[in-house]
Amino acid sequence: MSFQAYLDAVEEKTGLTPRRLVELAHERGFDASTKAGPILAWLADDYGLGRGHGMAMVHVITKGPRIATTHVGTAGTHRDASDTLWLDGRATRPE
Taking the CA of residue 6 as centre, how many other CA atoms within 13 Å lie in the half-sphere pointing to its CB? Predict the structure, then answer.
């Protein structure tokens, strides 16, 4: 599953775009200095997200939408089309 696919699944599960979840996380005081544990607990308690989907959100909450280019443009199952994740929802993502 690609990184972007994890974020798309988070949107499906929560009904919120990844960008909105990032905003809510920042309102709670989560930022680049926050460890994964408290963010994962919040996402699990409030939105029912498991560890994998939660860790995808931890990345964008603490590091922003840029990802390593390791799988960008590859043919593997973890491939992503870009090194920048789309946070504004599946319906608005340019294809």
Answer: 21
